[in-house]
Amino acid sequence: MHIDGKAGADHRSSIELAIHSPLARLPVILLQVHDKAAQQLKSHLQVLFDNADATLFEMADKARSDAEQSLFFEAMRDVRLKRKNIERSFLERLLYAFIKLTQPAASDSTLLMATPAQGVFSLLGNDLERAQVINAMVAKVLVRDQSALCHLSTRLNTLSRVVLNEQNNPLGPAMLCEYFLQAERDQGIEIKVKLIMLQLFEKYLLSHTGQLYADANQLLIATGALPDLVSATSCCSAQPPGHPQQSPETGEYAGNLVELLFDYIRGDRNLSAPLQNIVGQLQAPMFRIAQMDQNFFSCDSHPARRLLNAIASAAIGWDSSVDCRSHPLHRQISHVVQQLASYSGHDPGLLESWLHDFLMLTQTEHDRVELLEQHIRDNELATHRQLQAIRPWLVSSLPLPVLDEQDHLGLLLVSQLRIGTWIDQQDDQGSHLRCKLIAIVEPEGRYVFVNRSGIKTLEKNRSELIRQLRCGTILLLDDSLLFDRALASVIESLGQSAAQ
């Protein structure tokens, strides 16, 4: 049985010495933030361990061999015996991290404590599987709670003598994972069991960080720490991207993650073939940016990410009819791709400038198309009113179609259609037409669609839509942010792979 090595007694004693020394006196507000957080985290840890027993018992029951079953039963006993020590060690490390905020210049060796290396994907150990799980967990929190955590870091920076960001914030997901890993390591938890415990840690503790950050921010606001901080102060500028502090392993992991992101993008049916071709050219520039800038994955307002999202959003209406040689938007996107290909990674302001220029160019076209769409909606409404006035009995006596089980599936898909939804219709020759729903005329059940230029190209009644959605000749498109969608998918895949 392979057991993770225990942390040395010297390290444990150094924490205890620092906590009980006079230097451990925290400013009142930091102490309040710590105490509130510690109370919440302790409660979540208790729920975690209460559920660990049932989880390990279930896994023992499903074990494929006697040896594996014995491992899980032994783990149950081990976790029961060590839970109090793990909880205590976790909370001690949390307190010590808060103490460090007021002692950046301390030279005493007892105040030196290892913290995660900078960068979202920095918790890389010798075990790749465990590293993937941890990095996936950290990234998921940063994607979900980035704004609240960024506000918390900004407010704590007004009280701390250490410059904080998402990675070294004592309540950030990277540090929380580090406390838990170190606490388990102190107790010699077996690696396979540790992976299971990490999944429980994500489920019962990291899933509640939103409330943790909200409460901490509220405490700081109540004491006057940047109460008017409304828009998220950019964590992307916490460290100049031209001066990365990443380990080679972290850089390699960032490269692997970018590769996985673009594997997803190349297989994303929501992107048309012309768009996939041009977006695929961004893999190398995004890889360089990810290596140079530690906040590329964690900061959803990162200009490179927003550029990629803006390109995908602007070109969602592209289909097989697009002439890439003469299409104005294609020329604009090609220009952005060339700019990114030449980007050195040292000037985030330049990325912001390119993003601004691209958005200004596409906004003009967007405004023009919106006017055309509104004109079509007005005409459809006028036609509907005329029909009601001339033949009021017609719209009130339309027969209800008889639906079978498959039709009910199609009806469920139709119910997901909202104004602004994009669809992809495939004809008998395999050509694709992409269009956007701009009007639903009831009670007739007419659905009106326009193409990317705002020209009416398609009208379907509800029965036709049900049939085509059911047989797959019409597909609903996901127009959510491309980068965020890809990152969420990759994180989920990594977590599932590591759990198997």
Structure summarized in a few sentences:
The chain has helices at 9-19, 28-61, 66-100, 128-156, 173-187, 191-204, 209-222, 248-266, 273-280, 283-292, 303-314, 328-341, 348-390, 392-396, 405-414, 462-471, 482-499; strands at residues 422-426, 432-441, 446-450, 456-461, 474-476. With 500 residues, the protein is mainly alpha-helical. It starts with 8 loop residues before the first helix and ends with a helix.
Sequence-ordered SSE layout with sheet pairings:
Blueprint: H1 9-19, H2 28-61, H3 66-100, H4 128-156, H5 173-187, H6 191-204, H7 209-222, H8 248-266, H9 273-280, H10 283-292, H11 303-314, H12 328-341, H13 348-390, H14 392-396, H15 405-414, E1 422-426, E2 432-441, E3 446-450, E4 456-461, H16 462-471, E5 474-476, H17 482-499
Antiparallel strand pairs: 1-2, 1-5, 2-3, 3-4
Helix pairs in contact: 1-3, 2-3, 2-6, 2-7, 3-5, 4-6, 4-7, 4-17, 8-10, 8-17, 11-13, 12-13, 15-16
